[in-house]
Sequence to fold (1380 residues):
Amino acid sequence: MIKVGIVGATGYTGVELLRLLAPRQDVSLEVITSRELQGTPVADLFPNLRGFVDLEFTAPDSEALYECDVVFYATPHAVAMKTVPTLLKRGVRVIDLSADFRLRDIALWEKWYKVTHESPEYAAQAVYGLPEVNRSKIVDAQLLAVPGCYPTAIQLGFLPLLEAGMVDTNMLIADAKSGVSGAGRKAAVGSLLTEASESLSAYGVSGHRHLPEISQGLNAYAGKDVKLTFIPHLTPMIRGIHATLYAPLKAGQDPSGIQQLFESRYKDEPFVDVLPNGQYPATRNVRGGNRCQIGVCHLPANNMVVVLSVIDNLVKGASGQAIQNMNIMFGLDESEGLRNIAMLP
Amino acid sequence: MIKVGIVGATGYTGVELLRLLAPRQDVSLEVITSRELQGTPVADLFPNLRGFVDLEFTAPDSEALYECDVVFYATPHAVAMKTVPTLLKRGVRVIDLSADFRLRDIALWEKWYKVTHESPEYAAQAVYGLPEVNRSKIVDAQLLAVPGCYPTAIQLGFLPLLEAGMVDTNMLIADAKSGVSGAGRKAAVGSLLTEASESLSAYGVSGHRHLPEISQGLNAYAGKDVKLTFIPHLTPMIRGIHATLYAPLKAGQDPSGIQQLFESRYKDEPFVDVLPNGQYPATRNVRGGNRCQIGVCHLPANNMVVVLSVIDNLVKGASGQAIQNMNIMFGLDESEGLRNIAMLP
Amino acid sequence: MIKVGIVGATGYTGVELLRLLAPRQDVSLEVITSRELQGTPVADLFPNLRGFVDLEFTAPDSEALYECDVVFYATPHAVAMKTVPTLLKRGVRVIDLSADFRLRDIALWEKWYKVTHESPEYAAQAVYGLPEVNRSKIVDAQLLAVPGCYPTAIQLGFLPLLEAGMVDTNMLIADAKSGVSGAGRKAAVGSLLTEASESLSAYGVSGHRHLPEISQGLNAYAGKDVKLTFIPHLTPMIRGIHATLYAPLKAGQDPSGIQQLFESRYKDEPFVDVLPNGQYPATRNVRGGNRCQIGVCHLPANNMVVVLSVIDNLVKGASGQAIQNMNIMFGLDESEGLRNIAMLP
Amino acid sequence: MIKVGIVGATGYTGVELLRLLAPRQDVSLEVITSRELQGTPVADLFPNLRGFVDLEFTAPDSEALYECDVVFYATPHAVAMKTVPTLLKRGVRVIDLSADFRLRDIALWEKWYKVTHESPEYAAQAVYGLPEVNRSKIVDAQLLAVPGCYPTAIQLGFLPLLEAGMVDTNMLIADAKSGVSGAGRKAAVGSLLTEASESLSAYGVSGHRHLPEISQGLNAYAGKDVKLTFIPHLTPMIRGIHATLYAPLKAGQDPSGIQQLFESRYKDEPFVDVLPNGQYPATRNVRGGNRCQIGVCHLPANNMVVVLSVIDNLVKGASGQAIQNMNIMFGLDESEGLRNIAMLP
Fold:
């Protein structure tokens, strides 16, 4: 029985962790914290959890966290960096869904997040939790940084092409579309149904915080610095990310091997589903499920490779991937608790 | 291992049966039929099932159906009545999600469905699969008629009041709101996103097919004929039914006992969740889950009882309830395969 | 040329006033106020107005308001009551879209709005701006109280039946469904797309602020106190109210005259559209237009009259109706600036 | 008074033409055709038109078409090509919203539309109705081909850059997102609310019919053949196109002039709105209005120009642009009947 704590479970990644963890027989939810809501039953905030989660929110400095085997941070950025070290020192493993420990380059992190990092030495030892790349390191991770939602969809889409060196890395484009839950469960005019439904717009055009995280990964896979243009868009749906990726095929590369390349790269991956040639994904295919679904196409007229990569931003893009990492860290079947099928329609 | 067949699994109740059944270890999907799509992989039609369901659609008269322990009918009305008898005679138990065997009064059925019933003798022996009322009869059912979506939400909402004889049965009102999936997965202009989103309208105002089914139930619980006005509405969402029920409290009845009445009636029911006094349900609380969530309020100014009852029309209103019945029929834990938590947001 | 000011135009009724007024040749927008946003171009907040409205927001105590012929208040409740008297004393006519001057009974107003009314003497002289009832009084109104959104849809639906004395006023039910814009343009978790889309719920079940306003009207039309149960619902769309109204026909009344009753009552009304017998409205039929569309049905089994009444809550339920009143007050064609057709799809 | 006929007005471009034309005093709607619905009042199909359009649908071969000054074709492709010549010979001017006369290269048209063109000689004399490019030719057009929705948004976005020769035309990318109304008002499973809401997917990945039309324009503006990758996406909203355009700035070009370039190019255009530096469009800013709103950004890290171009696909992308062309053809103010402000929210 794995004893689990969750810090800051009042947002969407928090409730999603609870949705996926509560039914498990091998996991025991010990403590769920929230500064504002301590004393409130968790199921009062999230009525879908009634009968499944009987805990109340407790203060974030609860001693009970130290009794856990693993603590998930489902907090905004710049929270985990303050208290994670104490947990680690007490031998509690930490899975951080926030951005605090994703970047190796602390100066870069501080530039994008506009705050001084309080635990820079831990960023160096954190393991970046993209199992399709880092599985062996995840096994022994004490501090696990869960990748962001855009970074998950985009890295998994570009990964095979970069590893194989097939595309021109000087002009990669990631045009990404996200549902509104990516903005979290906070009162903001721009996320109102009246503002965000029946509309579509780009945001962060001149620069988005996920860009350095994505580049860090792509550079590693390519073995050199890539040039990526990344434009995220807000789209009128609750969940889902659809990344449309453009990469010019290098001269001399044979496009007929691309489909096979993707299928081979991911054939043993339980949570990456490469569609057959000519089929393309829709975000609804993965809604509620921990799966990245990918379609690939080569356009001969421009010798361009187009990759379509979809995830549920709250599952494979956050809480599901966090649990996938937990399963690896604790030697469980990687799919434990993640076998539920996406909900369609 | 229960061997399962599904007839007509190209609609939303079909894919929902598959979503809930495919991950189970105690169920074996044997055959899935579709006249139009025979030979097509099921997962080509429903890409969320890729990797979970490897079957192809087969012809509806497949011999393989006779090898099943139970066959679900996820067909439009007037289909099951043609072939169910043959299965029953071969000892196969049948769970029919369509309307064919829900009404005792065949003449009434024929009037509303405008077709001659081809197996009227079986309607008499069919068990109406509302476990909260009929659990003991369900155990031995050979032919199980799964209640409709509106009937489930409305009957469960009125049931305690009628059994207790607390309300005036001469003026019951059920104002019900449904998501668009209630119309099924068929190409129809009225169900297009362009027609049904950003709009709300009543339909079937002068009479809806679910009315006689609802009345059949309410009459039984009240022990006399009730007068019910039922107005369904189409609302711009995929899933969910919200039934707002109005019943005048009888003179002399004590309103202070109503909350307790509901809690007592459903305290042992795994799939009915009575909210605390002053809380009211939202359809999203049950989206994807097999749960009816109910809130009750008494308005003293008019001595009116208002009951708010929500379900996911595809789960507790169809496929989830069908599986709940299967579990009872086969002596399993009633919650087997139905413990997944509703998806919020 | 009518000189117009708008107080508090940062919400949805504000931008809707501007959408409808800006293209007019006979209206001059003089001043638009907002305490928070003074100095900001109005079109920066509402980019649909770029090129149509060149004003900046000014402070709410701007002297320019006194130069206006008419000032619209598009403020939350309890704002207009503070400053309207000064404008009136300076000879400026006021059209208040808030609730401050809708109720005759100040004690009742204070009970529901939980604040002391600061200008109770003006409530007595305010004209309730439902043209279909009060047109002749509106002509000379100095202070005009625009009806609420629910009250408009519900009063227009019940009006003919109550005037004619055809229904039992002891059990009227108004089951109303609203789009999210009814909650205004304010950051609130419950109005987020992630919370309000793909869901439907009742709210204000034990009592909603619009109830006394509706009852005030219905009592007047019936000539006696009616008993109304009013349950509003939040539905996943931006605009629209659909009121489903239930009224038992009195014994002895001939149901065959109901359709004709509605048609006669509204035959000269430019903004009430009674549908032919057997047709029912959808909110999208009136989206963006200043129209109430009504369908009526009599259910013989229960002798129940069901009225379906739809409006766009921001147009006929707020800003459009405000302009309709302005047209009447200033002796213009009542339809001036309101002839645009609803947008479908 | 311009006498107008509309062929095939049962789709969304048809009802949109009627919404915009019916309120006009200088236009007389003479005849509206539909083969299937002849004899049905137009307002029965589109209840938003009740009281505004009193015509019935008539047969498409109605003689009344010959009495019109101008006839709009709001038909699927391969319809106009059959009957347009007869109208032209009788001196009736034609504005075709379909694709039949958009391409100069008939062989190319036949390849993409998979049908033999029956009036190829008329394609040569048709004027492509993008007023921002072709205004002077439109004045005398007898046969006017209204641009497609994607082509309008994409051409207007790339146009200034190509005319100025500032970007590398060997790698242009247009990642376009459309609302579902782009698929028309036809019963299709993929356009159901249950299929298309809460989801996002690319389509036509390997090739979309609008590609040759877009390329024809871009080639002309660039003065040479460009290489364009065009990926359209289906997004869960009714109306709107958001085109995200990527173009590498040529080495040596000064990025600081790009904003000014766009502003200058469109400063006299009544229906193109270039946003200030740092502001980006949303489709809702133009919903219901005949406007293309454009934002531009240069990303120094990759020397990439990103253009964001939005329209309402049914207005500036179809019926509004058709009317803008009519205004030019008949010597009216180009904005006549098109001054309505977009509806927000």
Remarks:
- Residues 150-313 of chain D form a domain with the Dihydrodipicolinate Reductase; domain 2 fold (CATH 3.30.360.10).
- Chain D touches chain C through 37 residues (CB under 8 Å).
- The longest strand of chain D covers residues 241-248.
- Chain D has two domains: 2-125, 150-313.
